[in-house]
Amino acid sequence: MDSAITINLMRSTPLLLEARPSDGYSVHVRFADGVAGVVDLSYLLDYGGVFEPVRDPEYFRQLRADLEAGTIVWPNEADVAPETLYALAVTTPALS
To answer: In this structure, which topology does domain 3-91 adopt according to CATH?
Structure first.
């Protein structure tokens, strides 16, 4: 079986297709099932470790959608759990 098919069969959270920085520490996200939202990730500012660089707004804006991981990542490989990102998007839908 193709590894991409295997990953999709095992995935319980829809695949993240798009992530782009919005205002402040918010990110516009769009998932394969059509869910889209603007999620507030300012809570990450309270964390240290790998999230320390994310406090810098310019660094924060370097995030990207990682299709393999199914979430957003930063250059230092910090990421947000895909389930968390999806739950935030469901509760804060994007405006049409």
So the answer is: NE0471 N-terminal domain-like (3.30.2020)
